[in-house]
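Q: A small favour: would you put together sequence and structure tokens for a protein?
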Amino acid sequence: MAELPRAPRDIDSLRFASVSGGTTTIAGMLVATYTDALLVLHRGAIVTERYFNGMTPSTAHLLQSVSKSITGTVAGILIGRGVLDPAAPVTD
């Protein structure tokens, strides 16, 4: 299996608006949300790859919420390309 190129950057101190109001950092968000793993890709290169709570690159992890997000994203792309009709019954 081919590995993606790496372009490491320290993103921990990057600030953004938090859901609860105010701002937080990437590092703060990772702690507050009990994140198990994080991978950031930018222009085809891995910017950061981190694991927490005993996770490793080879640890299996449940993906229910991720699967829903990916399915919704792919459906949106296909609708945008005219390949999927959002008004069609699911059975189609």
